[in-house]
């Protein structure tokens, strides 16, 4: 009986404590109700504002870059930032300053960890954004980068795809393209051809020079208004090296390669007919 009275008294004390806590929480909830309504209204306004800004930013970036991926990325980033700001403001209205501080600290730690874990991926994304805005090349351009030459087929945030003359699809990370030199042949309408021929040393070198210039003059792809020269620049034993230079239009794919082929075949054929080679 004695212990029963003690247990009953303790249980009554626990009940009073629980009801007291619930009562205090109820009073606090009633007092916080106006702030809760204001916080919900603030969060709703930020959500509507974020949706509006997402559409405006998407259209603006689309006009600047003409790229769906970049437009969607920037618009989504702005939308997320505005939603986070609205959430923090709502928590401040509810006087949950410690929760805001904890969330900011957690977001910073998570961001730092993700940055170290995906630094290569992040570098590729940032490089893709810079490539999209600066536009050193576009889809359809013939470029040379990282030891590959081909036509740009697709530009994404992470990588760029080009098709080589052999029909191979080459995917290059944007970080490698952004950090290394790029030769854009499509942005260079004119390109100079430099061909070196090895001829025997003789008194017929002026004749050889005339034959080479005649071959260049007959070629329809060579631009007539640009310099066309033949220079003998070095002697190697009993041979002399002749450097043939001319210019072609580089806007169409394959023009440079075809002209080089035609000049080599034509010059060697005519020099052999003349008995110089």
From TrEMBL:
It comes from Chitinophaga varians. Keywords: Cell membrane, Membrane, Transmembrane, Transmembrane helix. Pfam families: MS_channel_1st_1, MS_channel_2nd. This is Mechanosensitive ion channel. Its main location: membrane. It is found in: Cell membrane. Residues 120-186 form the Mechanosensitive ion channel MscS domain. One of its GO terms (cellular component) is plasma membrane. The chain crosses the membrane at residues 32-50, 70-93, 99-118. Belongs to the MscS (TC 1.A.23) family. GO terms for molecular function: mechanosensitive monoatomic ion channel activity. Signal peptide: none annotated. It is a multi-pass membrane protein. Gene3D superfamilies: 1.10.287.1260, 2.30.30.60, 3.30.70.100.
